[in-house]
Design goal:
This protein is of the alpha/beta class. 40% of the residues lie in helices and 28% in strands. Strands 3-2-1-4-5-7-6 form a seven-stranded mixed β-sheet, with helices on both faces. Helix 2 links the parallel strand 1 and strand 2. The two termini are 25 Å apart.
């Protein structure tokens, strides 16, 4: 749907993935025949993204951030951020995006999050963690509040203010699922190494099958910059 909307307005859009990390969203865009620039402030993550970019990859990699992309004025037709916009200084980032977007260009922040409402496995893990980690709170709750308030906070984007909320599932191995939880630095920092290993073992004990159906929820805002802005 997003691809059709963008290409209806810009047959050959210049695309920027800001806060690209290691390039997960960038590679998805490249697979859909988009081209442009991937921007990431963290040197280690950017180098990992470059390493995974094959010869002829249609995105160049740049050091930059949401507040200072390093892009030229009015050079981008479609600017995206995947699971990253809430980390920016929002006012500074929005000023920067308005500077680099072409008239009629689009800014699309996207979040892919665990579906805590409909995933019983995640609900069980949340209950386990609330017992194990005294300070446990879902980071997603804070992000959801940010997402829900974003419409009012971006009033300077005058056109195509669209919000999409969709659900999907992904099947993954038990090991990959556990590695997803192992990567939660916010949880690890609240426990010592032995306590964290114990928590992972308890999560593993909740997984009966070798493959896990992970339920996800994607939130997307589409903001259009007016042609005369």
């Amino acid at each position: 749907m997003l691809s059709l909307l963008i290409r209806n307005c810009f047959p050959n859009p210049a695309v920027a993935d800001v806060g690209a990390g290691t390039g997960l969203l960038t590679r998805e865009l490249a697979a859909r025949a988009f081209a442009g620039t991937a921007i990431e402030p963290n040197d280690t993550m950017r180098q990992e993204g470059i390493r995974h970019s094959e010869s002829g990859f249609p995105f160049r990699w740049l050091h930059g951030s949401g507040e200072a992309t390093g892009l030229a004025d009015q050079s981008i037709d479609w600017l995206l951020m995947g699971n990253a916009f809430h980390w920016t200084d929002m006012d500074a980032a929005l000023r920067e995006f308005r500077r680099v977007l072409t008239p009629g260009g689009f800014f699309t922040p996207i979040w892919v999050m665990l579906d805590t409402e409909y995933d019983p496995t995640v609900q069980s893990i949340d209950h386990l963690l609330s017992e194990t980690v005294p300070s446990f709170s879902r980071h997603s709750d804070v992000v959801l509040e940010f997402i829900n308030n974003l419409g009012a906070a971006t009033s300077d984007f005058s056109e195509h203010r669209i919000f999409l909320d969709s659900r999907h599932s992904e099947v993954m191995s038990k090991d990959r699922y556990l590695n997803m939880w192992r990567s939660r630095n916010d949880l690890q920092s609240a426990l010592n190494a032995q306590e964290w290993d114990s928590a992972i073992q308890r999560i593993s004990g909740l997984l009966i099958e070798d493959r896990v159906v992970l339920k996800l929820r994607t939130y997307t805002w589409i903001f259009g910059q007016g042609v005369s802005d």
